[in-house]
Design brief:
By secondary structure, this protein is α/β, with parallel strands linked by helices. The protein folds into 2 domains: about 260 residues, Alpha-Beta Barrel (TIM Barrel), CATH 3.20.20; about 30 residues, no CATH class. Helix content is about 50%, strand content about 10%. The chain contains 16 helices and 8 strands. It has an 8-stranded parallel barrel with strand order 1-2-3-4-5-6-7-8, surrounded by 9 helices.
């Protein structure tokens, strides 16, 4: 009987052997797939692919919604209206209340709070990441309050830290009446964009800053029109192609405007505008800096939507104050440097009549005679 069972078992093994072999091959392939390393993916391509699938879209902020109607009294909304409508936005750099008053008096419809100028005027220090968020917010609150309808675009450096700090920066800027800000891709120990030796963070870290800014803006109750400007300093470090790629990704992440720092020629500005269209492009002109001294009309012809003159106020102030101090030192009087401006005339530039009028309307009598 045992020999009969042995024969049957041998026949069964013969019949099942191909099936056993197939299962063993399949198991081996599963094991190999499990231990085989995944195919290598270019990190830059990974970032691009991820962001391609996560393009920011907010129909409420579509530029078409800002094409018509009277200019808003809300500075952020007004800035969006200016961006959506024809004509270049000219924003002179301001550094304090005096320069802001002078810019408004001259008829400018938008102001730019330069980080370099703010650091210089408030601290007497160079633009080397010395000023803090509090310094910038306090300065922005003051200049925005002079005429709350005039949009102020403010420098926000790197956002003053990680995503949580960037979000805090956006919310604080918006709360004090600033219309928009720009955040850059330099390392935290940043410097003026027109100095040498700049270093930039990775694409992904830059995009993290932009995303954090957009998320913070969109979380403001009531629906904020606050404008997010993505700035790259990578052109001088990694080349123009990388700079344009970063700005494209920033736009996809929700940046409303693209700011390429240190563009060196007319041809490069034109090609940048074309590559980023229809996204508005901001150009920063500093006399003696990396970017040629384009005029506002020239920049508009090249396709730029915003032109800022970051140091126009503080450089003029250095020249003016130097001349006044030298004259005082030599002559012993400020008569020539005053140029006929008496104290009341000076205070009138600073809004004297507005304050006196308000006091009288409220029933005050302290300033009947000034």
């Amino acid at each position: 009987m045992s020999s009969l069972f042995q024969g049957l078992w041998a026949s069964l093994r013969f019949i099942l052997s191909p099936v056993t072999w197939l299962f063993s091959v399949a198991a081996t392939e599963d094991i190999l797939r499990a231990i085989e390393p995944p195919p290598k993916i270019n990190p830059a391509q990974k970032v691009a692919d991820n962001d391609e699938n996560k393009k920011y879209h907010n129909p409420r902020l579509d530029p078409k919604n800002y094409l018509t109607g009277p200019l808003s009294l809300n500075p952020a909304t007004r800035l969006r209206q200016l961006l959506a409508r024809p004509g270049i936005i000219v924003a002179p750099g301001i550094c304090d209340g005096i320069s802001a008053r002078c810019a408004i008096e001259a008829g400018f419809e938008c102001l730019y709070q330069s980080g370099a100028a703010t650091t210089a005027s408030r601290m007497g220090q160079p633009d080397l990441a010395i000023a803090t968020l509090n310094d910038f917010v306090e300065a922005g609150e003051m200049v925005s309050s002079i005429d709350p309808t005039v949009p102020v675009i403010a420098d926000a450096d790197t956002g003053f830290g990680g995503p949580a700090n960037v979000a805090r920066t956006v919310k604080q800027y918006a709360q004090v009446g600033i219309a928009g800000l720009h955040i850059e891709d330099q390392v935290q120990t940043k410097r003026c964009g027109h100095l040498m030796g700049k270093q930039v963070v990775s694409r992904e870290e830059f995009l993290t800053r932009i995303r954090a800014a957009v998320i913070a803006r969109d979380s403001i109750p009531g629906g904020s029109d606050f404008v997010i400007i993505g700035r790259t300093d990578s052109a001088q470090v990694l080349g123009m192609e990388e700079a344009i790629t970063r700005l494209r990704l920033a736009a996809d992440a929700g940046a409303d405007v693209c700011f390429i720092e240190g563009v060196k020629t007319e041809e490069l500005l034109r090609s940048t505008v074309a590559a980023l269209a229809p996204k508005p492009v901001l150009v920063n002109v500093i006399s003696g800096g990396l970017t040629p001294s384009f005029t506002t009309s020239e920049a508009e012809t090249m396709g730029a939507k915003i032109i800022i003159f970051s140091l126009v106020s503080c450089v003029a102030m250095v020249h003016g104050v130097r001349a006044a101090m030298k004259s005082l030192k030599i002559t012993g009087t400020d008569f020539s440097s005053a140029k006929g401006m008496d104290p009341k005339s000076f205070f009138e530039v600073m809004g004297l009549d507005e304050v006196v009028t308000l006091d009288a309307k409220a029933g005050g009598t302290a300033f009947k005679l000034v």
